[in-house]
Amino acid sequence: MEMSEDDINTEEYPTEIHDYLKTFEKSLSSVDEMLKTMMSVPRRELFQKLEPLEQVKLDLVSAYTLNSMFWVYLATQGINPKEHPVKQELERIRTYMNKVKEIADKKKASKLDKGAASRFVRNALWEPSPENERTSKTPAKAKKRKMD
């Protein structure tokens, strides 16, 4: 898949996009290597090593990646992917990715120990004793009561 300088005929396209094409070609090579690595492990074997939430994440990332690649394919064929059903599919997958993220975040969040929390709040609140209540009144309040 790797192209050499000799393979690229710069007369076929504007020279100002040459660097962009080289970067794109390197990106394609990188994607190809990642896919080969991912495909080298049987899916069943990979899933056995993952927790259910991780399995869902892998499925979603795989579906998103394939649909994204199809998006790029459509663009290379002169088809506007924004007007193609692949756009709705990507949005649907993104929605599920966000739901899985929420579940993972809730799972990571610390659990509230209701008993400990109520003891903490109960002990933090000050309750006046009857003798403190009498001495804590200000003279202004005492005068007002005498007037009533």
Automatic annotation (TrEMBL):
Plays a role in the recruitment of the exosome to pre-rRNA to mediate the 3'-5' end processing of the 5.8S rRNA. It comes from Anser cygnoides. Residues 123-148 are annotated as: Disordered. One of its GO terms (molecular function) is RNA binding. GO terms for cellular component: cytoplasm; exosome (RNase complex); nucleolus. It is found in: Cytoplasm; Nucleus, Nucleolus. Belongs to the C1D family. Transmembrane segments: none annotated. It holds the Pfam family Sas10_Utp3. Keywords: Cytoplasm, DNA-binding, Nucleus, RNA-binding, rRNA processing. Coiled coil: none annotated. Monomer and homodimer. This is Nuclear nucleic acid-binding protein C1D. GO terms for biological process: maturation of 5.8S rRNA; regulation of gene expression.
